[in-house]
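Predict structure. Input: MARVEL domain-containing protein, 183 residues.
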Amino acid sequence: MSETGFPGTYSTTTVTQTSTTTVSPNIRFDPSYVRTIPGMLKIAIMGLNILGFICIMVSEVNWHSRANWFNFCAMGGFWITGILLAFYLFHVIEKLYFIPWIMLEMGYCGLWCFFMLTASAACAAQGSLFEAWAAASFFGFLAMIIYGVDAFFKFKAWRAGDIAQGERVRSVQKSETVGTPAY
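Output follows.
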C-alpha cells in the first residue's frame, strides 16, 4: 500500500543558459549607427543642446549665472554626446568592450537629464523677461526628455545583459528528466 504524500514519480528540470559575445577589435567607420534609435537620439540631443546654447548666447544677459549654468549643461552634453557618437561611429566602444558602456551611458544620461531639468527650469523662470531664455528652456526641456528616454533604453539594455556594441548570442537549453523515487 502506498503512503499518501509520496509521489510515484518525480520530474527534474535543468535549464542551461549560455551566451557568446562576438566583438571586432578593428577601428573602422560605420555610418549605419546614425540610423539606429540610439544614434538618432544622440544626434537629436546634440542639435537641441546647440540650439539652446545659441539662444542663451544671443540674449542680452548671457553673462548671468543662470545662463552660465544652462550653457555648461548644454555644451557639456553636446561635447560628451559628440564624443560618444564618434566612439560608436568608429567602433571604439566595440574595441573597448570590457568597459561597462551601457551602465556608464545610463548614468550619464540620467545625470544630464537632471542637469537639463534644473538649467531649463532656471531659464524658464526668467522666460517672461527674456524671450531667448524662454526658447532656450524649451530646447532644454526637449533635451531633458530625450536624455530620460535614452537613460530608460540604456536601463532596459543593462537589465537584459546587452553589450553596447558588438553581438551577443544567447541560447537556452531545457532538459526534463522523469524518474521514480528510490525509497
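The chain has a mean pLDDT of 89.
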